[in-house]
Known about the structure:
- Helix content is about 0%, strand content about 25%.
- By secondary structure, the protein is mainly β.
- The N and C termini lie far apart (about 45 Å).
- A 4-stranded parallel beta sheet has the order 1-4-7-10, with no helix packed on it. A 4-stranded parallel beta sheet has the order 2-5-8-11, with no helix packed on it.
- It has no helices and 12 strands.
- It has strands at about 5-10, 15, 20, 25, 30, 35-40, 45, 50, 55, 60, 65-70, 75.
Amino acid sequence: MIHPTADVSPEARIGPGCRIWNDAQVREGAVLGKGAYVDRGVVVGNRVKIQNYASLFRGVTLEDAVYVGPNAVFANDRYPRATNPDGSAKGGDDWPIAP
């Protein structure tokens, strides 16, 4: 399903079952896998590859030549739940890696 107000390049490849909502942009050479979800106002740059069942929610912009793995979710969460006791957002150094 491609919303009538979505701007999808004829050079983009859209997989079966994709949903591209209003005012979304999908640029030249972009590839969307089966069942990908592109929410309202999302921008997908040139030569971006989005694998099967990935979800991009409102407010997301992917620059050119980005790869998104299968089932990835860009939630654009304004209030992240992963925070430190002081209220700051957790970063890469806050997560232990098991041996």
